[in-house]
Amino acid sequence: MLNTLLILLIFQTMGEGLVYLFSLPIPGPVIGMLLLLVFLIMKKNMAAQLAPSSSQLLSNMALLFVPACVGISVHVHRIAEEWLPIVVALVISTVVSIVVTALVISKLKRKVPE
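User: That's the sequence. What structure does it adopt?
Assistant: Structure tokens below.
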């Protein structure tokens, strides 16, 4: 479990470092996940090694939402003032995500022989 956490934190730190170094407008953890994806594609055996501990982390994922909930409760007055842009952004991003996912799945289904 510690090795898995260490690997995940290393990639997150690398992502944060790249964002800081190049002033990227993308969150560091997203860059870190992309780096981790490339790493796992290159070293296929690492995915199997990380899977058991990653499953444990995912089973306790609710704990990771506590900081977000605290942030929402701290800024509830700001959310109340700017609710319309927030709702519009949430609806548009949800629709775009669904459409992109559907397009990717349909293209992948065409490539895979049945």
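The mean pLDDT is 91.
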